Amino acid sequence: MKYIDEFQDPELARRLLDDIHATVTRPWALMEVCGGQTHSIIRHGIDQLLPEQIELIHGPGCPVCVTPLEMIDKALAIASRPGVIFCSFGDMLRVPGTGRDLFQVRAAGGDVRVVYSPMDALRIAQQNPEREVVFFGIGFETTAPPNAMTVRQARRLGIRNFSLLVSHVRVPPAIDAIMRSPECRVQAFLAAGHVCTVMGTDEYPELAERHRVPIVVTGFEPLDILEGVRRSVRQLECGRYAVENAYPRAVRAEGNPAARTVLAEVFEVTDRPWRGIGMIPDSGWRLSAAYRDFDAEARFSVDGMRTLEPAECRSGEVLQGLLKPDECEMFGTGCTPRSPLGATMVSSEGACAAYYLYRRLETRPVSREASPVA
Ligand code: SF4
Question: Ligand 1 pocket test: which of 67, 94, 322, 330 has the largest number of ligand atoms within 8 Å of its C-beta?
């Protein structure tokens, strides 16, 4: 398949690996930002093919994983209200809140629906004018534009029974927060190609300069990852810290101007808490003043809800690259995809789920659960 098979070519992968092996002279720690990249690395065993001096640290770029528990509890509270139709992508239904998840709300009679686009939720609102329809808008710069467009469309069409529960986050402030942490070991970043497809690369040179860290924008196929590693290692070995675009088939410096325009109109930057990490200044979006009446948190008065994370789950350390999933005591025993303690085990992009799916037999004794992700 074009754009997939050609980026999985074993011969080209071997050549890139040879180049990396020939370049490395000392240990380096690289963070792949995106959960999609983590899955590709673990699935194809890329980390096991690299020289042992190179450590890949799994970053916080999984949208489900970084959505705070408190936001899940707000979703559960809204979805339980009579008269509400709560719409979400399927991933979120299994994410445990405090004591239950959206599946359980549905089993108890709540009208929780899986949709494939926020526009599906808007259509449901049009078809059910007597009901309140809420869409759970989570994720990074990639999922924010369609959600912003849907809210704009709702206003244009005068659909008042639609609202958005917003939990959008932005990657560059998270990179900044990771680099500012006293425990940070990251020396280079593989930035998420799909985020840069929307936002471009303008926010990265200042970050690379401030933290003296190479940032290589790359994709998700094995050759993309290897090329990202190759370029990062080359920079590190000669003391450079520049931004490079290793994903030019998708990413332009200016990103997608139409998407950026709608984002700037409908959302405004705000501080956001990241699950397991805490509050990161300017790391998210909320609805701008002009669209605030589509905000589900205000409409359903859940904006004051506060929740503490379960103490036994160490997903915060996993999301910051301070702990590998299989180093968590609960991995594969007290925490599996069928009974997850944290979102990093639920989401198909979560690092704990990736290790469970591809590495659990190599690491620790685990439960007899056969299927990692339902
Ligand atoms: S294995 Fe489970 S308990 Fe441990 S960090 Fe991952 S999600 Fe949390």
Answer: 330
Q: What is the pLDDT of residues 330-362, one digit of tens each?
A: 999 999 988 888 878 888 778 999 899 988 877
Contacts of 267 (CB under 8 A, 6+ apart): 144, 148, 166, 168, 285, 286, 287, 288
Cβ pair 246, 224 in contact under 8 A? yes
Which segments of the chain does DSSP mark as H helices, in order? 10-23, 35-44, 46-49, 63-66, 69-79, 102-107, 118-127, 144-157, 171-180, 193-199, 204-211, 222-237, 257-266, 296-299, 315-319, 343-346, 351-359
247-277: per-residue pLDDT in tens? Answer: 999 999 999 999 999 999 999 999 998 887 8
Residue nearest to atom 7 of ligand 1 (CA): 342
Tell which atom from ligand 1 comes closest to the C-alpha of 317.
Answer: 5
**In which residue ranges of the chain is CATH 3.40.50.11740 found?**
65-169+255-299
Q: Is 5-62+171-245 CATH 3.40.50.11750?
A: yes
Rounded Cα distance between 311 and 304, Å, is: 22
Place of tokens 């990241």: 274
Secondary structure class of 164 (helix, strand, coil): strand
Start-end ranges of CATH 3.40.50.11750 in the chain? 5-62+171-245
Q: Ligand 1, atom 3: nearest CA belongs to which residue?
A: 313
Query: Residue for token digits 């808008």?
Result: 137
Fold that domain 65-169+255-299 belongs to in CATH: Rossmann fold (3.40.50)
What confidence tens digit (pLDDT) does each residue in 43-92 have? 999 999 999 999 999 888 888 888 988 999 999 999 999 999 999 999 89
- For 280-330, the pLDDT digits (tens) are 999 999 999 999 999 999 999 998 777 777 788 898 888 777 888 999 999
Closest CA to 233 of 223, 241, 224: 241
Rounded Cα gap, residues 93 and 79, in angstroms: 11
If residue 271 lies in a helix (H) or strand (E), which one and from where to where?
Answer: strand 267-274
Q: Is the CB of 85 under 6 A from ligand 1?
A: no
Question: pLDDT at position 151, please?
Answer: 98
Q: Is the Cα torsion angle 289, 290, 295, 301 positive or negative in sign?
A: positive
